[in-house]
Amino acid sequence: MNTKVVSELVKIVGEEYVSTRVDVLLTYSETASMAKDPVTPGAVARPGSAEEVSQILQLCNKNKILVTPRSGGSSLQGEAIPKPDGLVVDLLRIKGITLHKELRSVTVGSGITFGELDKFLNQHDLWVPVAPESALICSVAGNVAVNGAGPGSSAYGCIAEMVLGVEVVLPNGEIIQTGSEANPNAPGPFLRYAFGPDLTGLFIGSLGSLGIITKVSLKTYKRMHQFHYETYGFDTAEQSEKFLIEVKNNDVLPMFASVYEGPVLNFFMDMVGEEYGIPEHEWPHRTVSMTIGRLREDRMKSDAKKAKEICEQLGGHVIGISELPQGEWEGRFWTFVRTCYIHGWHWRTLYHHQTPTNSHRSVEEITAAMDEHGFLGHTAGFLSGHSTMNMYPHFYFDPLDKEEDHMIRAAHDELAITLYKTGAVPFKLAEYWKGRMEGMEDYMKLLSAIKETLDPNGILNPGVLGGI
Amino acid sequence: MTEIDLDDLMENLAQCRRCGICRDAVYEDMGFDGICPVWKNTAGFETSFMRGKLMIAIALLEGRLEKTSDNTEALYACSLCGNCTEICAAEFDPKESLELVRAVLSDIPNEVRDTLAERILTTNNPYVTDKKGKRDWVAELGFEPPTKADTLYYFGCTAGMKLPETAKAAARLLKAAGIEFAVLEDEPCCGSVMIRTGRLQDAEENAKKVLESIQESGAKTVLVSCAGCLKTLRKDYPEKFNLSMPKIVHFVEYFLELVKSGKIKLKPLGKNVKITYHDPCHMGRELGIYEEPRDLLKAIPGVELVEMETNRRAAMCCGAGGGLRSYDPELSKKIAADRVREAEETGAEIIANACPFCEQNLESGAKLIDSSIRVADIVDLIVDLIE
Amino acid sequence: MDQRIVDELARIVGNEFVSTREDVLLTYSASASTGYESVQPGAVVKPGSTQEVADILKVANKYKIPVTPRSGGSSLQGEAIPKPDGLVVELLRLKDITVFEELRSVRVGAGITFGKLDKLLNQYDLWVPIYPESALVCTLAGNVAVNGAGPGSTAYGCIAEMVLGLEVVLPDGTIIQTGTEGNPNAPGPFLRYAFGPDLTGLFIGSLGSLGIITSVSVKTFKRVHHFHYETYGFETKQQAERFLIELKQNEIHALFVSIYEGKILDFFMDMLGEEYGIPKHEWPALTVSVTLGRVREDQLKSDIKLAKQICKQLEGHVIGIGELPKGEWDDRMRTFARSSYAHGWHWRILYHHQPPSNWHRSIEEIWAIMDKYHLLGHTAGFQSGHGSYNYYPHLYFDPQDKEEEMKVREAHKELAQRLFKTGAVPFKLAPYWIEDVEEMKDYLNLIKTLKRVIDPNNIMNPGIFGDM
After folding, report:
1. Is there a single domain that holds both residue A231 and residue A206?
2. Could you say which of C185, C198, C296 has the minimum Cβ distance to residue A302?
3. How far is CA C306 from the centre of its chain?
4. CATH code, domain carrying A122
């Protein structure tokens, strides 16, 4: 990178927080996204405040330097891979947690991870009840930028539903605060929908392409201590899907509910069954693993009873193995990482959402793709809100086998088209969706127009948001 | 006559804060499933329902809108059904206010309004330009009612001229029940349509004539078979013209009493005959007579009474009233057809009613959509059932 | 309006559905917003389909005619007052309703009112649990455009929280579908956050300035049949405020919660006490009127018990008059219209949100303004979600007293500025809130930028956010 620009960066953040060292650049050339080619940036800057982020963006805009915002580096779909000779803006130095107890909310800087926040809130017997699978690594701000979901989402939806406002630095350096805090006199975040159109949403799921989120305000809730863990067995996919819908309909509060196919569950059990102390079992065609949570014991018991009733009405049976959901829930900040890495493969994921009653279609298509291309992998999903499931298929490959790596990429891209045709939707408009969403040309045109207006020089994470 | 207090009227009109609840409110708990039949059966511009009509009224009265026939069209494109008054959240009666506005603006030319009034004033009916025919049905009765008696059957223009079978049925019913009754030799029109369309002064002159004729008959009780006559004689004459009227009773009320007291007994109409009842605006919303006609129908053996989606205070109008049938016959019939469709949805074979004016329009509506449903006055239904 | 343009419009919708009649234009020159000047449009058009809306906007865009979208005409803050010689597009003919039982959602055309939808959903034992105060008049689409709230919002938030997607016609005639339905293969609406940045939110609360919403998809829920109505008395504002926070914090499912000052309650009782059969009572300094609702009876009982306990802990007392909340809730689609109109005055409203802990600040400013300007009026509100309270102060005037009306307008503006300084936020943005607020210039600028890119000719409800 141009040394003049680098010295300008140094002026903004201090010498200590800019690097153009080859080894440093190498470590920023990749993230947790496997099956993506590394790209070496020209520099990395680690600003300590929104004001510094603003100055950096003004500088980059002037010099048309491509910028990749990054915090935890844990994203799986290539959201934080830099551009050649571009600038990586690492946001982990922006710390700060402010609790607004009376407002039932908390504000965190873009460097705060879910793990940190959870420990802090626990002191107040509070929590933000949604956490992604990479909770110990990813920052809240980064998760908002990719609109993640995870344990807790079955009851509360994706992270977007928790957001009360963001502080965001636009490509031109303007610092915008959305939500009630846009009013400088406001006592803090208490309402997302303030001041007309919802500008907050524009940055949720924007994959860092419209602005850099430097602060996020979220809802907090009283922490739950009453949980009920249970597994429910069904003979058909339809029964298990209906079960999830009825659980939601009847106001049972599932903190986390996943549907597992028999074969997938057997595979998981082989891997981690013993580690989590899950007894041997002949798992049925479909198993729903569910954690019910409530503040009050009587309500938790009432929910557990109702869930059992619904299960049996649908012709299912209560399996009685609670170790599976309990392991998932209690280890929610780590379990998923564990199951993703214990098997030794590298993989590509293809996050998407299906409505529960259509989730068998994803399973069918993914299984068919694995059969056709002859690769290994699995798919599972969890209930992630009002009537949607977050599916996270994994396609395995041997990192030392380049050919397999490329086969996986091709299969992955093909599957995106197939899944789209089943009615699935991506919530992260990762790069590979580009050109694979027939009938959405006008939608993408609007998105492009917004991008061009906010970022006329196209400096912020270009190409990442669905190719825009 | 009581002068219209313009300040009072303006104050009433100012009660409308344009909330728009009078357009098409669907409020299941209160039974409303749409409010304005004109809005529903036209292109549905704001002018079609009460909110817009009152805006126009105020603008005309304040001189912000030129007083032309065109600009008063909306004021007359309304059957004054009063459904808007039922749902209105403010403290005034929009339908009544519009009726008064028509009176205040009665100088603005309106051919339909004036033709109706001229006919009534000169020929005692709004339908034709001579007096002939209104009493022809009497000749077909097979007996000649006197012109003086304690009880007078004030049959009304529509039954007399358009639905003589109903007039005859009413008379036969009275005879079968052993009631002595008179029929006027030259019955004046009640003048309802003149009140509705704003010819108040003429309506008052006419009302005096009606009262005189009734007094001449010596009647202590006036029986009517028309909801419009009922409301006009029972409510408007005393309230608007300060006239002291004898007892005005609708056939339905009268015969329900006879049935209840056991004085008459009804034979079965058939086996499981499904009937639905259409509430005439003048009887229901205006006078609160909802249950009497239903009770009478239920008293007929073999009748299963079923309700339409909208009924009683929330009943949709047949579209005939307020001068609308004359002012915009096509619209009026469309509204009737809409009501007939609602009746058809109940699976009923018969739409029973208690108003020849409604009946006439509902029949037009049924014809418009080729409906085979039978439209019948309750009087027609029970005339042959007296044991 | 130019006859050629009118002819073009007539070709799109048919002669029957275009009007330039003077009387018609007069009736579209105002809405339910009292205290606003009427403005006569040049034409009114009533499209019967989304395609017709698109064709109309193409014509308007070509001739640069300002467009005012309108449905129920029940908005109270001048949102649907046309521009001189502009075009009013009335959407009431768009009447489709599609229920997606399995997706727990429903899609409605822009002509469907809450009352109409509620009746239909009742057949399925479902509801959309938020009812704006004008539910019998206003359409869902219109309510989304102003982002309204009402009974039900205490538990579920503002209408934005129900939205799963929108069909929007952009000023250039492009038809955009947001949410899962953006995918033409999707089984229907099941997730708002699909396809990257949340474009849905951009149109929520946009006051018709960015496009015309022709169809709205919203969440449905199983209808609640177990209710409990209770009033709770407190001596201090702080106790009452805390009570609201604790209800939420303890997961008590209150559908509708209002705080009434003693004097306001006396005023309401004088108006409507008898109509709603509310017994005479010496109301305490603060009364909290609460409707609890649950799908399951045992849950309700648990809530009732805990609410009572919290009230007592805060040194309040259970009043025992259930008729007040019951009247509010049972007649929720009409009560508020009734209490707004029964007293005979015209009024100007100043919708805003406060956190419950700041409830008293609005009260203080509102009474101060009424005293200063010698005005009559009142203020009340309701809890409207996670951490907010929706206020709706009314400032009364005699419609025949122009001077008083002008005084009310002036007071209204000053009140907005004073409330802003207390930290209150409007959810419907109007220029009087922020025109002189330096700190919000960048925020407003962002809205204007977005407006410019989507509506370069500025034809959509221009000026609604202030001078663009």
Report:
1. no
2. C296
3. 31
4. 3.30.465.10
Of residues C78 and A312, the one with the higher pLDDT is A312
Max Cα separation, chain A?
71
Task: Indicate if the pLDDT at residue C433 is higher than 90.
Answer: no
Residues ≥6 apart with Cβ < 8 Å to A453: C449, C450, C452, C453
Secondary structure letter of residue C68 according to DSSP: E
One domain for residues B251 and B378 = no
Q: Are B364 and B336 in contact (CB under 8 A)?
A: yes
- With a CB cutoff of 8 Å and minimum separation 6, the contacts of C278 are C269, C272, C321, C323, C324, C327
Structure tokens at B137: 């049905």
Whether residue B96 sits in one domain with residue B15 = yes
DSSP B269-331: -SSSEEEEE---TTTTTTT---HHHHHHHHTSTTEEEE--SS-GGGPPP-S-TTTHHHH-HHH
Answer whether A161's CB lies under 8 Å from A144's CB: no
| pLDDT tens, position by position, A245-274 | 999 999 999 999 999 998 889 988 988 888
Structural domain span for residue A349 = 344-433
Instruction: Verify that A300 and A200 share a domain, yes or no.
Output: no
pLDDT digits (tens, 9 = 90+) for B174-210: 999 999 999 999 999 999 999 999 999 999 999 999 9
Provide the domain limits for residue B366: 263-382
In this prediction the ipTM stands at: 0.95
Asked whether the beta carbons of A292 and A303 are under 8 A apart, the reply is yes
Backbone angles phi, psi at A179, to 5 degrees: 75, -170
Percent of chain A at pLDDT above 90? 87
Chosen domain end from B227, B257, B287: B257
- Report angle CA C301, C307, C312 to the nearest 5 degrees: 130
| Number of compact structural domains in chain B | 3
Q: Name residue, tokens 């009876």.
A: C297
pLDDT of B378 reads 97
B17/B33 same-domain check: yes
Do both B235 and B167 map to the same domain?
yes
Which residues, 6+ apart, have CB-to-CB distance to B212 below 8 Å? Answer: none
What is this structure's pTM? 0.95
CB contact under 8 A, C136 and B27: yes
Residue B285 CA to residue B276 CA, distance in Å, equals: 18
The contact set of C with B (CB < 8 A) is 16-17, 19, 21-24, 26-28, 30-32, 34, 44, 46, 72-74, 90, 92-93, 113, 115-116, 118-119, 122, 134, 136-137, 330-331, 333-334, 337-338, 340-342, 344, 346, 399-400
Cβ–Cβ contact A125 with C under 8 A: no
Q: What whole-number distance in Å separates Cα of residue C259 and Cα of residue C237?
A: 9
Question: Does B304 share its domain with B372?
Answer: yes
Average pLDDT of chain C, as a whole number: 95
| C453 vs B377: CA distance, rounded Å | 65
- Name all domains of chain C by residue range, CATH numbers in brackets: 3-90 (3.30.43.10), 97-222 (3.30.465.10), 226-338 (3.30.70.3450), 344-428 (3.30.70.260)
- What is the three-class DSSP state of A166? strand
Record: contact C196-A429, CB cut-off 8 A: yes
CA distances for A434 relative to A409, A467, B176, B362, C174, angstroms:
14, 5, 86, 61, 20
CATH of the domain at B88: 1.10.1060
